[in-house]
Design a protein that fits this description.
The protein has helices at residues 19-26, 77-92, 101-105, 112-120, 124-132, 138-144, 148-152, 164-177, 201-212, 229-232, 241-253, 270-276, 288-295, 331-349, 372-377, 397-404, 419-426, 463-470, 496-499, 504-510, and strands at 3-6, 9-12, 49-52, 59-60, 71-73, 193-197, 216-220, 257-259, 279-282, 299-300, 303-304, 318-320, 451-453, 478-480, 487-489, 516-518. The chain is α/β, with parallel strands linked by helices. Bound molecules: iron/sulfur cluster (3 copies) and FE2/S2 (inorganic) cluster.
Length: 523
Amino acid sequence: MPKLAIDNQQVEVKDGDTILDAAKKLGIEIPTLCFVEGRPPQTSCMVCLVKVNGRERLVPACATKARDGMQVESQTDQVRQARRTALELLLAEHVGDCIAPCQAACPAHMNIPLMIRQIAAGDTRRAIQTVTRHIALPAVLGRICPAPCEKACRRRNKDAPVAICLLKRCAADVNLASPQPWLPDRKAETHKKVAVVGAGATGLAAAYYLQRDGHACTIFDRHDAPGGRLRYADSETKPPADVLDGEIDIIRKLGAEFRMNAEAGADPAMEALRRDFDAVVIAAGKSAPDQAERLGLPKTDAGIKVDSHTFASGVDGVFAAGRAVRARTSAVRAVADGKAVAASVDQFLRGQAPAAPPRPFSTHIGKLLEGEIDKFMEGASPDAQQQPAEGGAGLTEVQARSEAIRCLHCDCRKADNCKLRNWAQAYDAKARAYKLPRPPYLGCETRHPDVIYEPGKCIKCGLCVAIAADAGEQPGLSFTGRGFDVRIGVPFGESLADALKTSAADCVNACPTGALAFKDGAR
Ligand code: SF4
Ligand code: SF4
Ligand code: SF4
Ligand code: FES
């Protein structure tokens, strides 16, 4: 029974155990990619390196037996740098987008490809759930959003972008027209009260998410009816009043209370709001600078000065967002601000310091090389973009399904559970640390009912090859090519369905990246 020390902590393990086993016993986390519990080590990724005293080179923890008297260091600068280098070398050969270009361009970061897959499957109910996770007023925005997502859509490389905005509008309209429009579940009541000053896009979105989080919002606005510029602006790009009212009704059903004809910050006075509510969100557009003065908040030329990540003003419990803090803003930016400020207020009300979520690690394919768009087009509908009927109509559900199958599914189905992405984030690895030309995009094998294989995301760990072989798969998977061109593939050009008849799910679960993933993104 060897006794060893890792980071000066003593531990005793069984004969034959590895340094990785010993670290687990101590609760010390060592990154792994090519190793899964219960299988022999593959020792290909080298992200599990540790320092063993007396040895000149770092050793892989997953494959090095624990010995009596060993002194192991797992967190030194040298070890961390070596792991970062191992990750960056893997990423230098990687071709994939963690987040699709459309989603990256959306100010609200809506999961557009997921919504599109749900619409393609005829499941508008789930599509509206996906949309409203990030966008509170989808039927409104489906009509007036300038659609920065469509400007970034990869399908433009072939013909016209996917009509993302019209797809979102279709899902929202179907929901609003249904006998029982979908209402999100509310978290348990917190008994915290929030005053939202201003019932425009930002205030409505903030109230929507705060109600979902279990808080009780009262929305004050100087007009007769809620909506702000969405209702009262002197512009042609306003949504129809019945659509706006339909979405406001959902916020009402979530429990928000509206007090109209209340001059923001004067009736009731801002001091009274701070006294009677646990938090105040100022989303009152142009009148915000006056409130800033009354509150003694610092101002900028654009409006109230707030922390750009959390929207917290200098005054405890007072937040401001949207046109209250920006000189100009689009409707989608205003709605995105409403969600972001709600997240900060929620943290504040739960006794946490408001903090923006860390920016996730992301790899990008970037500009396509010549001919690559044709690889992306494999499996997508070649049809032209669907056009709605004249007169401001949206897409019908049938048209929406036809439009949805034009999508190239540029996102990664394992973005939320990819070990490579998670460790790259934890080790601050750079996706393009080495200024090498990007390898070409190799397409996506989709000929399996449940699973896809994207060779550009494969780190050639060999786990899937071994798992398929152990399961007796014929032909299974194998390494093909030589040297730098070695790849994992299905021999003899057969399909993934032929290769993985029984072990597909095991291979997906073991695969440390999005190279093998379930089509629907499920774990
Ligand atoms: S495999 Fe991982 S790192 Fe690569 S695109 Fe997918 S989530 Fe990002
Ligand atoms: S093709 Fe689909 S996933 Fe790709 S950018 Fe366009 S909408 Fe997004
Ligand atoms: S596809 Fe196979 S070889 Fe490639 S990363 Fe996934 S498990 Fe490893
Ligand atoms: S070499 Fe140890 S996990 Fe890959």
